[in-house]
DNA sequence: ATGCAGTGCTGCAAAAATGCACTACTGTAG
DNA sequence: CTACAGTAGTGCATTTTTGCAGCACTGCAT
C-alpha cells in the first residue's frame, strides 16, 4: 500500500508545503469568521498567510475551498478506513463503521468545529460544500467497487456511496456544534438504520396529524 | 397554488426573456460540442446568442450553468409532480413515480440528449453538475417535508430526497444515451428497488465471479 | 399619446480563477 | 563541493464572475 496516511513531514520541503496549506486554511477560516466571506479577498488571505495569490490557487480550486480543506483530508482518511474494514461486512455496514470511526477526531478538532459554525452562520457556503462532497462520494464509490469486486461504473457502488454521503451531510447539518460527539453519532446511527430499513415512512409519524 | 407550470409566454417581455435564455443555452451546448468546453469563452457564447457577456451572468451563475439549464427547469417540474402524487403513497414510492413520470419527456428532448452526450464526452463537466443536483435535492427535500408534515430541517426528508437524487444521477450516468427510454426506466426501477430493500449486497452479485 | 414604474440589458471596474513561463530552492548523486 | 532533476512559489496575461449604475424598452394607467 503506498497510501501514507501519517502526516509526518519527512523532509523540509514536505513540511513547508503542509505549513503553507495550513496557514492558508487557518487564515481563511479566521478572516471569514471575522468579516464574513463576502468581505474577504484572496489577496487578504494570502497576505495573512504570507504567500502570493497565485500560490493560493495552487493549493485550492476556489476561494472557499480553503475552508473546506477538512473534507478533502477526510476523504482520504475515509477511503483508508473503509479499505481496512473486514471483508465480511456488508458495504453499508462498513461505511457506517467507517464514518463512526472518523467522526470523533473531527469533532475533537477545534478548527473543524469553527468551520462547522461558519457554515451555520453563512448558509451560502453550504452550497459550495457540495463540491467537496461530490469528490468524497466518488472516492468512496471507487472504494466500495473495489470491496465488492464490481466495476467502478456499476450502479450499486454509486448508490451506497451516495447514500453514505447523504447520511453524513444530513447528520452534520442537523447536529448542534455546541453539543457532544455522542449526539452526532446517535444521529448517524439513526440515519443508517433508516437507510438500511429502506427509508420507510418517518419513524415518529402520526397518521392522525394532517400537518397542514 | 400560485405555481404556474405552464410555459406560455403571456407578454412580449416574458417571451423575449425565454428566448434569450433559450438562445444562450442552445449556443452554449452547440459550441461546447463543436470545440469542447475549454475552447469556448463566455464572449463566444454571447456573440452567438446576440447578447452581452454581462447578460449571460444575469441568467446563469457560471459559464457551464447554461448547459445545465435543463436540470433547473426539471427541478420545478419534479416538485410539482411530487406535490400532485396521492397522499397515500410513501415518500420513496412517490419520488419513484415522480421521476418515472418526468423521464420520458426528458429523453424525448433532443437538446437534453445532446447535453447528456456532452457530459459523456467531457467528464469534467459532471463535477460542476453537482451544483444543480444540490439545488434539486433541496427542493425535493422541502416537498417531502411538506408531504410528511415534518420540519424542513428534519433528517428524514433530506435522506429520502438525497437518495432519490443519487438514484437519478446514477441511473442517468449509467444509461447509454443512444438506447431507449425503457432502458433508463428499468435502471431507475432497479435502483429504487435496491434502495427500498436497504441497499443490501449487490443484487446480481455472483460470489463465484471475482470480477478481476 | 403621454407619463410612470418596473426591469431587462449593458458597460465598467474589481475580484476570482486559470494557463504559461520563469526563478529559486530542495533533495540527491557524483 | 558541484551538478542536476524536480517542484513550490511567483509574475503576467487572459478569462470568468460579481457589484454597481445607467439606458431603454415593456406594460399599464391616464
Automatic annotation (TrEMBL), chains A, B:
Lineage top rank: taxon: Bacteria
Pfam families hit by this protein: TetR_C_14, TetR_N
The keyword DNA-binding is annotated on this UniProt entry: yes
Keywords: DNA-binding, Transcription, Transcription regulation
GO molecular function: DNA-binding transcription factor activity; transcription cis-regulatory region binding
Keyword Transcription regulation appears in the UniProt entry: yes
SUPFAM superfamilies, alphabetized: Homeodomain-like (SSF46689)
The protein, known as: TetR family transcriptional regulator
Gene source species: Streptomyces albus
Upper taxonomic lineage: Bacteria, Bacillati, Actinomycetota, Actinomycetes, Kitasatosporales
Amino acid at each position: 500500500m503506498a497510501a501514507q496516511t501519517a502526516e509526518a513531514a519527512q523532509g523540509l520541503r514536505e513540511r513547508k508545503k503542509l505549513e503553507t496549506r495550513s496557514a492558508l486554511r487557518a487564515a481563511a477560516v479566521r478572516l471569514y469568521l471575522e468579516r464574513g466571506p463576502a468581505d474577504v479577498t484572496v489577496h487578504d488571505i494570502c497576505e495573512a498567510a504570507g504567500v502570493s495569490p497565485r500560490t493560493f490557487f495552487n493549493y485550492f480550486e476556489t476561494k472557499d475551498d480553503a475552508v473546506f480543506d477538512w473534507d478533502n483530508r477526510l476523504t482520504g482518511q475515509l477511503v483508508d478506513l473503509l479499505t481496512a474494514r473486514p471483508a465480511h461486512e456488508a458495504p453499508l455496514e462498513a461505511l457506517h463503521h467507517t464514518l463512526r470511526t472518523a467522526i470523533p477526531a473531527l469533532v475533537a478538532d477545534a478548527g473543524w468545529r469553527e468551520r462547522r459554525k461558519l457554515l451555520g452562520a453563512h448558509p451560502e457556503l453550504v452550497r459550495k460544500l457540495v463540491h467537496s462532497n461530490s469528490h468524497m462520494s466518488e472516492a468512496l464509490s471507487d472504494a466500495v467497487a473495489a470491496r465488492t469486486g464490481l466495476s467502478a461504473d456499476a450502479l450499486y457502488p454509486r448508490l451506497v456511496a451516495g447514500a453514505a454521503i447523504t447520511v453524513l451531510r444530513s447528520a452534520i447539518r442537523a447536529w448542534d456544534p455546541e453539543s457532544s460527539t455522542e449526539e452526532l453519532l446517535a444521529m448517524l446511527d439513526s440515519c443508517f438504520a433508516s437507510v438500511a430499513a429502506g427509508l420507510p415512512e418517518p419513524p415518529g409519524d402520526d397518521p392522525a396529524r394532517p400537518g397542514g
